[in-house]
Amino acid sequence: MKYRFLLILFFVLSLTYGQVADLGKLSRGKFYSSAEIKDKHNNTRGYFLLYETDKVAKETYQLEYILLDENLTKVTNGFITEMKYESWFFTAKKINVEVVLEGRKLLIGFADDIAGEEYFKRYRILDIASNELSDPFIYNKNTLVKNPEFDRKHSNVASNQSEEITFYNGVGLMAHSKTMNKKQGVTDRRIVRYDDELNELWTFKYDQIKAKKLTSLSYLNSDNEVIVMLNHYLKNGNVSKYLNELSVTFINSENGNLIKEVPFPKDDYTYRVVDCAIKDDRIYVMGNMSEKTKEGFVHDSKGKGLYKFVFDKETGELLDKKYLLWENLLNNKSITINKNGVVKKEGKMYIHNMLMLDNGKVIAVGETFLNKPIITNNMYLFELAEDFSVSQCFEIEKFRNKFSNTNAYSSTIKRYGLFDFMDYQDLGDDEYLFFLNDNEKNSKNRKKTTLYGIISYSDGEFKRQTLNLKTETSTIFATSAKKGYMLLVENFDEETKATELRLEKVNF
Amino acid sequence: MKHSLLLLFFFSFFYAEGQTSFSPLDTLSRNCATKLKVEYVKKFKNINNSREYETSAQKNIIKEIYGGLQEDFIEKIDDNNFICDGDINGYLNSLMNEILTSNSIDKDIYRILLSKDSQVNAYNTGDGTVVVNYGLFLAVDNEDELVFVICHEIGHQFLDHLKKDVEAYARLSTSEEMIKKTKEIKKQKYGKASMATNLLKNIRYQSYSERREKEIEADSIGLVFYRQTKRSPAAAISLLQKLDVSDTEKDSLVVEDYKKIFEKGGFVVKQRYFEQEESLFQTYTKDERFNTDSLKSHPDCSTRITLIKDYLDNKFLESSTASSTGFEEIKRNSVYQNLFNMFSAQDYGISLYEALKLYKHEPEDPVLKNIIYLNLVKIYDSRKNYTINRYVPKHDNLNNTKSLNRFISFISNIKMTDLETIINNFKS
C-alpha cells in the first residue's frame, strides 16, 4: 500500500476556467485509433493508442502515441510527425494503427483511413526494451526504403505506400511483395527477410509476370526453422481467376530456400485452412472442406467435414491425413447435423478456429449461421481425438441474431464481425477460454440483460458460464484482455461519471 | 440502516470477547451528514453573497471555481465522508481551540472536521474548515505532531491562500495579455495546439511553483502558531521526517505468510495462486511533455525540514510533550478503525491486505480475524459478480509494491471453492 502523505490546499488549479479554458480546448488531442498487442498464443500483452495533437503543416500532423501494459498502466508515450491525406473531395479523418509483436519488438503499421479504406501504409518499430520508436519505413518496388519522403499527391500514391510488412513468428521482420508491374520493372513476387537493422537477409522469389499460372501465397505459421505458406493458384490473364488448386509451401527460415511445395489432395473436396500449428518436428494444417468448387473456395451449404494434414517439419513430406466427415455424425446425440454440415433448425457450420492441444487433440470452434438473411445461431465446440473422431461435442446455446435484408458468404460475415464468437485465450497446459456475445446486436433495450458467454476448457472438460452485466444506469462492453481476464468497459448514463475500465479475472 | 447496525454489531461484538478494547466509531449513520449538509449549504450561501469582485469577467470565473469546490464538498458530505463522533470531534476541537486561543485568533470562522479517508492527509477548504483524514492518526506518533498539522492548515486559512489563488487565477485568465495571446494562437494556421500547450505548461509550472511557496509560508506561520502552544518544536521536524519516508511500505506479505495465515482446516496454499503473467514491459518512462519536478505541489520534505531548523535556529527539544489520554485512546484504536473505514468505503482489497499484514503478527486477534472474514465475503461476492476490480486494485507493475501485486494475484487466482473454504475458516 502506497500512502501519499501530503498536507495540501483544497484547491487544485485545474486550468479549466475562463480564457485558460480556451487554451485547454486548443491544446486537447483527438483520438485516432488503438490496437491490442497480442502474443502468438492470442493473449493480450498491452495496448497501443494514437492521438492527433496538432496540425503542423499542410496535411501534416503531430501525433502522440501511448503504450499501455496489460494492466492498462502507461508504459511510455511519444510524439511523431505523420502526413494525412486531405483534399477538397476526400479527407482521411484519422490514421489507423495495427501492431504485431515479435519478441521485444513491436511493428506498428500506420494507414490513412479514407472512408473506411486504408491508404498510404507505412511502418515503424518500437523497441520495447528501450521504448524507442524507429523512423518510418516502407517496402516499395522491391526495396525497403527507410525514412521515405512522403507526399499525398494523387500522381504519387503508388510510391507513397508500402506493401505488406509483418513479423513472422520466430523469424522476424518480413516484407511480402505481391505487386507486379512491368513498367516499374517489378517482374516477380517475393518474400524478403530483414534483420533488426533492416538489412536484407534473403529473398524468396516465387512468381514471374509472364507465368501462365500465378501463385497467391498467404502466411500460415512459422518458427526459426520453417515458414509455412498457403498457396491458392490463379489463372493468369486479363482477369485473374482462382483455381481449385491449393498447396502448402515450406520455406527454410534461415536461408529462404524452398523446402517443398505439397499440393492438397486431388479428390472430391475443396479445402479451407483454418489454423496451422508447429509442434516439435511436425506441422499440422487444419481446416474444413466442402464439395468441390471451381475457384477453390468452400461451399457454405455443402460442407463435408474437417481435416488435419500432418507434415514432416524438416522435409515437408505429408505424413498423415485425417478427416472428420459430417455424415459420420448423423447419429451423434449431441448434435443433429446432416451430411452437408447443416445443423437442424440452426444452419450451416462456420469454423472459427482449430486449436492443437499438447496431447494431440484438437478443439474446433464452430458457429451455425444462415446466409440470407444473415442469421447467427448456436455455437459448437468439438473436441477431436488424435484419430479425428469426435470425443466431445459441446453445444452453446445463445441469442439468435438476425440481420434483415442481408445476404453474404460466411467469409464476409466473419470479416464484418457479425458472428457472435469473440475470441479465445490459450492459458497454457491445454486450458482455454472462449468468449462470445450473447446479446441482440445493436440493441438499446435496457430491459434486456447484457450477456456474455464464457466457456472454459480445463482438464478436458468444457464448462459454460454466463456473465450477466445487467445495469440500469450504464452500458457495459466486455472484451478479452490479458491471460485469464476480461476487460469490462462501463459507460455511465450520468455524463459527469467517467468511464470505468475493469480488468476482471474469469472464474472457472 | 439495518446493514449499518449489523456491521457495527459485528465489530463491537469482539469488544467483549477479544483482548482489545475496540469499539468502532459510527461512520455509517446519516444523521451527521444531514446536519452537516444543512450547515454547509447555509455557510456557502453566506460566503457567496458576501464575496466581492474586481470585474464582472472575474466574477464569473471565481463563482464557477467556488461553485465546483463547494459542490465537491457537499458530495463528500452526501457520501458520508465525515465522521461525527462526539468524543473524537470534541477532542479535535479542543486542539484547534488551543491553537486559536494561544494565538488570539478569532474562532468564529474555524471548524475542524474528521474525514474517514485512510490517506495520510489534511487540508484547508478556504472557508475556515480544516479537514483531518483519519489516516493521519496512523502516521503521527504523538499529539504534538497532530497539532503541528492543524497549525499548518490554519496557516493556509490565516494567509487566505485559497482566496488568493482563485483571485490570481481569475486575474490571469481575464488579463489583456492572456486574451491577446489566446487570440494570436487562435489565428495561427498551424501549430495552434503546441503553442497553447506551451503557454498552459508555463502557467501550470508557475502555479505549482507558487503553491510550493505557499506550503513553505504555511509551515512558517504554522510554526509561529505552534510555538505559542508551548508544545515541543521537535514535532514539526519529526512529522516532516515521517512524511519523507511515508511512501515506503513498512511491512509485506510473502508466500510463507499466506501459508501461515490460511492453511487451516485442510486448505493448502498453492504456488500457482501467486503467479502473475510476466509483463512484456520492464521500462516505464516519464511523460515527455512535462518536467515532473515542476509539477510538484509541495517542496521536498528535506527542504522544509532545513527551513524549519533554520527558523528554530537549530534549537529544538528532542522529546515531545506528553499526549493527552484522548490522543492515546484514538491512537490505540486507529489501526482497527482505519481498517473499518476502508471496509465501509468499500475498499475491501486494501482493507483485507492491511488486515492480513497485522494478522500475521497477531494470529489470535479476534477483531482482525473478523475484518478479514468480512472483507473475504465481500471479495467473494464481487468475484462472482465480476466487479472485483471495483473493490480490489488491479496489478500495477509501476506503482504497486511486489507484495501488493502478490496479494492481488492471490485474490484473483484462488479458486472460488478454495475461497469458500478460507471464508469458512475465518467465520466464527
From TrEMBL, chain A:
A family per Pfam: DUF6770
Superkingdom as given in the UniProt entry: Bacteria
InterPro entries referenced in this protein's UniProt entry, alphabetically: DUF6770
Name of the protein in its database record: Uncharacterized protein
Automatic annotation (TrEMBL), chain B:
Taxonomy, superkingdom: Bacteria
One example GO MF annotation: metalloendopeptidase activity
Pfam families associated with the record: Peptidase_M48
InterPro entries: Mito/Outer_Membr_Metalloprot, Peptidase_M48
GO terms under biological process: proteolysis involved in protein catabolic process
Keywords annotated in UniProt: Hydrolase, Metal-binding, Metalloprotease, Protease, Signal, Zinc
Cofactor: Zn(2+)
Signal peptide: 1-18
One GO location term (cellular component): membrane
Keyword Membrane carried by entry: no
Free-text cofactor note: Binds 1 zinc ion per subunit.
Residue intervals of the Peptidase M48 domain: 89-309
Family: Belongs to the peptidase M48 family.
Protein known as: M48 family metalloprotease
Organism listed in the record: Flavobacterium rakeshii
